[in-house]
Specification:
three-stranded antiparallel β-sheet; Arc Repressor Mutant, subunit A; 16 helices; globular; TIM Barrel; 379 residues
């Protein structure tokens, strides 16, 4: 992946219903904001078009649920991006979608507009689990959405799955994995539930009204995931991501390789290689600021070198390729092993980190205990 290219993220903060575990900036039942938000978003994109002179080779529409917008609105946003930026002919253009918000005609229109990668938020193929976490779809609708996406011409489809969910059991998780693989996706993202503060699910769990699987059962789900998917041809390339046939998500690889990206929309984050900056998280405020031709930016920081080096390290170590000592030296002009001699020694001794020619990468146990490993590198 060329270092002199740019990835673009577009945030669509609308949903039909907000899931009870979700802490992302999004709103349900905000239809009256759709049109002014799209107008503000296109204005922000147009104004920023001259900020980067490098070609754009990945675009990712996330949310929220981007497909809550009409296909024509999503097409207009994409066209604005193509006008404002130099988008390469082979750019990966991803769109998150939820079953229940897409149909074959809308998917055909989106595919014709240039979206060439679809990420379906399935989470589970267990209807009871889906109901518990507040998803609007059921397993049959997820299967139908996948078939419709293939019929619409999408040859690169990812499924998002989750484990460690309320009411979820190990056998049911196994059935979800089998169902997902049987559909024939090109990519699977599988995340363990993280309870986010003040979400409805976190409140229910804290009050004792809802229980999560025991820690040992969640660990068994993790182990099953990492035994089963590789046995079915899915190559693990990042802690929570698996692909077949070289279908790794090129956009997300930019984050893990510490490359530059530009975010548009409410709460969107950007990184230009030196500064990290982000937009306001208030949707009406975002619209009002753009309408008044004011900045939507609410946060900016220039990272000091110790923080930048630590981020580079633990983002690289999220991938199975790990951290290239040469890449570290090229970026910071320093020797990785000398700078991080103490944490490298500790992690190696306890079997979480291993050296392999020019790189360092987490062991299988290190992947399982990733957060423990990453904390060792923090300044």
């Amino acid at each position: 992946m060329p270092a002199n290219t740019l990835g673009i993220y577009v945030h669509i903060p609308f949903c039909r219903a907000k899931c009870n575990y979700c802490a992302f900036v999004s709103r349900a039942d905000a239809g009256t904001l759709h049109h002014p938000y799209v107008a503000a978003l296109c204005g922000e994109i147009t104004a920023a078009g001259g900020d980067f002179s490098v070609p754009v080779d990945t675009i990712f529409f996330g949310g929220g649920t981007p497909t809550i917008l009409a296909a024509a609105e999503l097409t207009a946003i994409l066209q604005t991006l193509r006008t404002a930026f130099s988008v390469t002919a082979d750019a990966e253009i991803s769109l998150e979608a939820n079953p229940g918000t897409v149909g074959v005609e809308s998917l055909k229109a989106l595919r014709q507009a240039g979206f060439n990668r679809l990420s379906l938020g399935v989470q589970s193929f267990d209807d009871a689990v889906l109901a518990t976490i507040g998803r609007i779809h059921r397993a049959a609708e997820a299967e139908s959405a996948f078939a419709q996406a293939r019929a619409a011409g999408f040859t690169n489809i990812s499924l998002d799955l989750m484990y460690g969910l309320p009411t979820q059991k190990l056998p049911g998780w196994g059935e979800t994995l089998k169902w997902a693989v049987a559909l024939g996706p090109d990519h699977i993202s599988a995340y363990g539930l993280k309870l986010e503060e003040d979400t409805p699910l976190e409140i229910e769990v804290a009050a004792g009204r809802m229980a999560l699987p025991p820690e040992e059962e969640e660990e068994a789900m993790y182990d099953l995931l990492n035994d089963f998917l590789p046995s079915q041809g899915f190559v693990r390339y990042e802690i929570s991501n698996y692909a077949v046939g070289g279908r790794e998500c090129r956009h997300n690889l930019k984050y893990w390789r510490y490359l530059q990206y530009r975010g548009f929309g409410v709460a969107a984050h950007s990184f230009d290689g030196t500064d990290r900056f982000a937009n306001t998280e208030d949707i009406p405020q975002y619209i009002e600021r753009l309408a008044a031709q004011k900045t939507s930016e609410d946060f900016r920081e220039t990272m000091d070198e110790p923080t930048a080096m630590a981020e580079f390290v633990f983002l690289s170590l999220r991938t199975t390729k790990g951290l290239s000592k040469q890449d570290f030296a090229d970026r910071f002009g320093k020797n990785f092993t000398e700078i991080f001699e103490a944490p490298v020694s500790r992690l190696t001794k306890i079997g979480l980190l291993v050296e392999d020619n020019d790189s360092w990468h987490l062991t299988a146990r290190g992947m399982k205990l990733g957060n423990q490993a990453f904390a060792e590198f923090l300044p």
